[in-house]
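USER: Note each token:
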Amino acid sequence: QVQLVESGGVSVQAGGSLRVSCALFGYTYAYCMSWHRQPPGKGLQWVAGINSSGGGTYYKNSVKGRFTISRDNAKNTLYLELNSLQTEDTARYYCAKGLVEVDERGQGTQVTVSS
């Protein structure tokens, strides 16, 4: 059974950094993966995507240069490093199977940025 489990979300001050992780269970193939987020009262937003090898990465304009998506296929883990955090980055962050689309996703991890 496929399962995605996010972790690492915390409350931080603006300008801070953190890394969220996504453990992948039950996957026998390295698919394209992505991170999405849902700010309070808003819809789901695509944040970043990564191809199966990790050699290709793609970002939402507002996070480009601040966030870094990466993966360790040997550990079946996806990462998102968040730097220079802004209050607008406050959201529940989800990892998903798919480069842009959400084929499957986890329960999410909460990131709260305070000013």
